[in-house]
Amino acid sequence: MNMKYLLIAGALMSHIVMAEEAEIANPVTENGVVKIEWQDPKSYRDLKTSNEIQSRFENRFFETITKNLNKEAEKTLKPNQKLIMQVSDVDLAGDMRPTFGATMGDLRVVKDLYPPRMTFTYQILEGEQVVIAGDEKLMDMNFMSNIRRINERPFDAETNMLKHWLKKTVEPQLLAPVSQ
């Protein structure tokens, strides 16, 4: 009798896990003045987790990056402006390495050799009007010197790369006088 209940419970759990793994094709995250569409995350170069359900890891990454980018964008953008992004590729800092049974999952090795990268298009909107638009292929070869302490904050290297982009690329364009 107990075996029957265990089999039923196991079948139910497998359906729950499968439902967890089912995700939206192009998830969208929004926080304050930032809205990001994550285009086809399954095709990203490296958005892999070592020890949690992949869909949860992806959602945590999407939400964290959007929230962190919003903090910086609120300082950079003028009132009534909004940053809209369509991300087409992500390569997290580090590289996944198999542990060959030493642990339950793989291990992310973070070295200078494996910088964070992100490819996206963006628009800065003021109301409904596009003020700035562009395509970016970011890569931060200097990310190791910008990380405060390893594992202090999740996705710190990727966040710093986007902050630097806002400061060096977007902010000067917003401050430039409008030519007639």
UniProtKB/TrEMBL annotation:
Descriptive protein name: DUF3016 domain-containing protein
Leader peptide range in chain numbering: 1-19
The organism of origin for this protein: Shewanella aestuarii
Keywords: Signal
Matching Pfam families: DUF3016
